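ok so I'm stuck.
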Amino acid sequence: MSRSERSGGRTPRYDLIGSGYAATRREDPRIAAAVRDALGDASSVANIGAGTGSYEPRDRQLIAVDPSKVMLAQRPAGASPAIRGSAEQIPLEDASVDAAMAVFTDQHWDDCAQGLAEMRRIARRRVVALTIDHESGDHFWLIRDYLGQYRQLRPPGGGLWELGLESGADIRPVPVPWDCVDGFFRAFWRRPRAYLDPAVRAGMSVFRRLDSLSVGDAMLCLSEDLASGAWRERNGDLLDVDELDLGVRLIVWTT
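replied:
not stuck anymore, here's the structure
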């Protein structure tokens, strides 16, 4: 949530683009296991930018924080308590939880350094973030060959990945399995036809934030390349790979 959103001047982004998000975005058990391992023995957790609740450990005391009422309304029955709030101004007391976590959310923050400072403020033991190392991830064929505009969407001043590097945090690669059940932007690297499905793209904020004409052109090119065999010529080696490093990283700060 931006400063203008906090003051009521602008609708939170996911209030505009988040409808139906839960249909394709659900946690992958392999990635969830990595998140749980990074949380360690933390018994109380705040999930910042929690959205619909994917990757929230169910065996801990948890509070979810998100600025979007549309996203919070899609949380499943029985999900942990949730409150509205931004990463830059988390409505929790100092040292109120053992750990703070954030999953694929910092690209929507206005000030990642402030968001990280807030997470460290409320966490007694550690901060855990699942985010993207763009230096490693930009070789992804969808960016390289079709959606070069994606690079314009990076958070201003860098995201949690850059802050993790600067601070010497523990950084762990998280390979994306070929059959990942969480439909995030990089999930279908071995299933290219999935990107042609508007319902699949609707769960990826990238496609909502890019110009619709550019997206349409990119999908037309992808469709033509799949039909002609050009995609397979460039990327056929991926069809024999079970998991791929696409820049997904777990970053752990201890406090």
